[in-house]
Write a structure and sequence with these properties.
Length: about 180
Amino acid sequence: MQSESREPNLNKNLKAIFVLLIAVVIILLILFRNLFFQSAYLLKSFGELSVDPQIAFKNNKPTFLEFYAEWCEVCKEMAPKVSALKEEYEKDINFVFLNVDNQKWDNYIRKFQVNGIPQVNLFDSKGNLISTFVGKQEEITLRHSINQLEKAEKSYEEILNTEFSSTKENNNHKFNPRSHG
């Protein structure tokens, strides 16, 4: 008889532990949701908090220009590194973030020949293109190039990494011989 009375108590204890475990997991997800979804949130906030490119190229400050997309896994991976750089340098450098999916930025996408993302272009205070980085970059590489913006001798540098997302070709601006565009 004692074994029969222990089984319901054991089941009640297991249920209580299970409910408690689920509650702890839910609370942890709520408390640390920014950590789990930080990259996607950062990418979304980059576009919202970005300096307008027309202002950036005219205010006599160096400019960090990144082309990105919210669906780009490499962009998401780099977002915390770029955010750390932005926090450190935003008083001295313009940070401009242009989403390649927004047709508003087509002229910049074509001008800077964006064919893979993320693409980071660094400009000196006069608006001269100094460096282009395509694909996944280490924070130290970007930091070194940002620090080089202040040096007098400048030469253009292009750094490509095999980890990048191809941009989708926008056919809205193509003409055929019979079009009147």
